[in-house]
């Protein structure tokens, strides 16, 4: 059974569409491209494989410290990362989203909780917004997934933007970025990230079947031993039900 619902868009922003197919609810921005999803019977789990990979920053953290840390999302999508960090990881969580209809849709249709002491959703353009925050160094996990309704290339993708992203991070902080598009933009995006973070800080997954490549960049580069990563992956998998052991077969430093 399939169902589709549309929310009227604000001026100059795409309309927000939702479709249900089986047990999965999908978010669209006026096109057939999937901008996010939710398992209707498990709304705080992460359904899409590439979105699960966006949590790879956990490999660089002690599990016992995660709930004391701060996660930030640039681009809300269907709020999968925001909900997971807030509900499952118990982290302080901040999301920045330009389209107020997406925020409304996530609250009404995708089980995004209302703001409280640990959760803040900011309706703003992520580019100028993070410039105001760029030297605070308060984010431990930064998730960047900024695509327009055509999903051709990242909306914000220059070295200056990634430099501001680095400024958002704590000393041990980690950024993950979803790189996807019909344009051949991956190498250019990777180069800009390396310019901002340094090539030794950058790791990458192999692409998913759908063409999403998740790139990870550390504020300060480390090279954990594989045995240490395996131990952390085992904890992540058992505690939070993410396929972290599989990640290690698909994930490596770029330099």
Write structural notes for this entry:
With 255 residues, the chain is an alpha/beta fold. The protein has one domain: Rossmann fold, CATH 3.40.50. The protein has eight helices and twelve strands. The strands form two sheets. An eight-stranded mixed beta sheet has the order 7-6-5-8-9-11-10-12, with helices on both faces. A four-stranded antiparallel beta sheet has the order 1-2-3-4, with helices on one face. The longest helix is centred in the last third of the chain and has 15 residues. The radius of gyration is 17 Å and the shape is globular. About 4% of the residues have low confidence.
How large is the share of residues in beta strands?
A: 25-35%
Q: Going by CATH, what is the homologous superfamily?
A: Vaccinia Virus protein VP39
Per CATH, the architecture is 3-Layer(aba) Sandwich
**Spatial gap, N to C terminus:** 47 Å
């Amino acid at each position: 059974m399939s169902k589709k619902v549309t929310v009227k868009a604000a001026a100059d922003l795409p309309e927000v569409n939702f479709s249900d197919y089986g047990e999965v609810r999908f978010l669209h921005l006026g096109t057939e491209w999937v901008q996010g999803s939710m398992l209707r019977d498990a709304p705080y789990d992460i359904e899409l494989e590439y979105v699960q990979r966006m949590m790879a920053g956990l490999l660089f953290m002690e599990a016992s410290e995660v709930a004391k840390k701060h996660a930030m999302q640039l681009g809300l999508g269907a709020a999968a990362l925001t909900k997971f960090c807030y509900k499952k990881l118990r982290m302080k969580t901040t999301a920045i989203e330009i389209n107020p209809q997406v925020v409304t849709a996530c609250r009404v249709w995708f089980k995004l909780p209302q703001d409280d002491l640990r959760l803040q959703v900011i309706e703003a353009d992520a580019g100028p917004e993070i410039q105001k925050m760029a030297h605070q160094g308060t984010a431990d996990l930064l998730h960047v997934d900024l695509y327009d309704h055509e999903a051709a290339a990242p909306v914000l993708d220059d070295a200056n933007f990634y430099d501001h992203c680095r400024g958002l991070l704590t000393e041990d902080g980690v950024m993950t970025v979803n790189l996807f598009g019909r344009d051949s933009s991956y190498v250019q995006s990777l180069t800009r990230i390396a310019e901002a973070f340094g090539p030794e800080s950058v790791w990458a997954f192999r692409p998913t079947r759908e063409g999403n490549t998740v790139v990870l960049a550390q504020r300060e580069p480390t090279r954990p031993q594989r045995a240490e990563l395996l131990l952390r992956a085992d904890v992540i998998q058992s505690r939070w039900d993410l396929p972290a052991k599989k990640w290690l077969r698909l994930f490596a430093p770029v330099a």
